[in-house]
Specification:
Elements (H helix, E strand, L loop, with lengths): L1 E5 L5 H14 L18 H8 L5 E7 L2 E11 L2 E12 L8 H15 L4 E6 L4 H9 L3 E9 L6 E8 L4
Helix pairs in contact: 1-2
The protein binds coenzyme A (COA).
Length: 166
């Protein structure tokens, strides 16, 4: 059974555990690296600050009592009608079971609730599994180049979902 929990600053140890697992398990999927969040980068203050992004909605998926997935919705600066889906990860042990679906639906619900008409995200161009999941949820390639890839060869793909058509 999948249960979704909204996490706040005080829940930083759970978020930290999941995020470090995500960066270690799927380094190909994220702009951030494990190294950036280890050692000196691994401080309580930093994790709390991540969970205190103003207006953000941070969600943990708990499967059979264990934290096993995560995603956030964050406001887009200078665009009140937009929100962004970030930090999406599902533990390999429970992949293919619809946890990703639950997380996307929850972030989209939150975005609609806060008045957003569009939900965007960035995905690595070779992350076909994630892109297929997003397409299934109505996200489409915007054609807008995202952040440059770590190797400098190309850009992240920016996808967006229209939230006005239900
Ligand atoms: C992308 C991701 C979040 C999807 O989560 P999920 O809970 O597996 O999502 P779903 O259950 O909807 O399954 C996604 C697809 O993987 C397929 N799948 C089946 N078994 C699987 C398994 N054991 N492992 C992985 N994927 C599997 C599903 O059938 C589904 O395919 P479909 O869309 O053609 O039906 C997850 O694979 C993940 O965390 N990947 C690494 C991090 C990542 O890429 N994050 C996105 C950053 S933009």
């Amino acid at each position: 059974m999948v249960e979704l929990r909204t996490v706040e600053s005080d829940d930083w140890p759970i978020w930290r555990e999941l995020r470090l697992a995500a960066l270690a398990e799927a380094p190909y999927a994220f702009g951030s690296t494990l190294a950036q969040w280890q050692g000196a980068g691994d401080s309580e203050d930093r994790w709390r600050a991540r969970l205190e992004i103003p207006g953000a909605h941070n969600v943990v998926a708990v499967v059979d009592g264990r934290p096993a997935g995560m995603a956030s919705g964050v406001p887009v600066e200078h665009a009140e009608d937009s929100a962004e889906l970030i930090s999406m990860w599902v533990s390999p042990a429970v992949r293919g079971g619809g946890v990703g679906d639950c997380l996307i639906r929850e972030v989209a619900r939150w975005a609609v609730e806060r008045g957003a008409t569009s939900l965007s995200l960035s995905v690595m161009p070779d992350n076909k599994r994630a892109a297929a999941l997003y397409e299934r949820h109505g996200f489409m390639d915007t054609g807008v180049p995202g952040d440059p890839l770590p190797d400098g060869m190309g850009n992240e793909q920016v996808m967006a979902k229209d939230l006005t058509n239900g």
